[in-house]
Amino acid sequence: MQRRHVFHAATLALALSLSVGALPLARAADQVVRLGTMSGPDAQIWEVVREVAKRKGVDVKIVEFNDYAQPNAALDAGDLDANGFQHRPFLDSQVQARHYKIVSVGLTYVAPMGFYSRKVKSLGELPRGARVGIQNDPSNGNRALLLLQKEGLIKLRAGAGTGGRNATPLDVVDNPKRLKLVELDSAILPRALADLDAASINTDYAVKAGLSPTRDAIATEDLRGPYANLIAVREQDQDKPWVKPLVEAYQSQEVRDFLARQFHGAILPAF
């Protein structure tokens, strides 16, 4: 009887040690995930995601940036585990130019880029020789040029801005109003608006500057374009156990409801 008691005790101790030893594997997603994003609307959304992710065992630590060039550099260097701030064309251009080993693991939202002005009510009202600000990074500058072409203000050479080839001001072959295209950093464009006749501004920077894409934009992109934002991780981490619950947390009903309540159509779910 005593021997049997000892056997049961030993068995119980072994079972407990095995279960405790297995706990880190079963709850691997409980590790801290350092996530980089842009300050402003992106960070606001990720605060909601963080609360949802916490219930899934993922502890998201949000790191805010103010420069589009920084989150991918930090991710590639290992200072972040993931980031969520960019669309596919921007990621592709960064990977190609800087040889980052970064991949997309899920879509987040789409925010149509728009043109804004304090001087005219539509792009068609721009005077001859107007100074028009566009982004100086390849993918967003391409978006601005395509929107100007869509609105009939310029014409790009055949093939420019399509098939993975970003258009630049050098690709403008027809410019009836002799618009002066001023290339500036995305973060500067809202502040430069007073000195320009119009400017292309990304939604996150527009919202931070007090502009409403639905109320103030004088022209906006088509929602059906390729510019849905995404969550990115290093290639080596794409199968880590925390990746799936992180994506699921973003693509949750709580986040969908927050986008509708907070942004009133300016930022829409891409999931």
Topology summary:
Blueprint (H helix, E strand, L loop, with lengths): L1 H25 L5 E7 L2 H15 L3 E7 L4 H8 L4 E6 H11 L3 E9 L3 E3 L14 E5 L2 H13 L4 E2 L15 E3 L5 E5 L4 H4 L5 E4 L1 H6 L4 H4 L2 E2 L7 E7 L8 H8 L2 H11 L4 E2 L2
Parallel strand pairs: 1-2, 1-3, 6-9, 6-10
Antiparallel strand pairs: 3-12, 4-12, 4-13, 5-10, 5-11, 7-8
Report on this structure:
It is a single chain. The protein has 271 residues and is of the alpha/beta class. It folds into two domains: 29-112 and 226-269, Periplasmic binding protein-like II (D-Maltodextrin-Binding Protein, domain 2), CATH 3.40.190.10; 114-220, Periplasmic binding protein-like II (D-Maltodextrin-Binding Protein, domain 2, 3-Layer(aba) Sandwich), CATH 3.40.190. It contains ten helices and 13 strands. Strands 2-1-3-12-4-13 form a six-stranded mixed beta sheet, sandwiched between helices. A five-stranded mixed beta sheet has the order 9-6-10-5-11. Strand 1, helix 2 (41-55) and strand 2 form a beta-alpha-beta unit. Helix 2 (41-55) crosses helix 9 and helix 2 (41-55) runs antiparallel to helix 10. The chain is globular, with a radius of gyration of 24 Å. Residues 1-26 have low confidence and may be disordered.
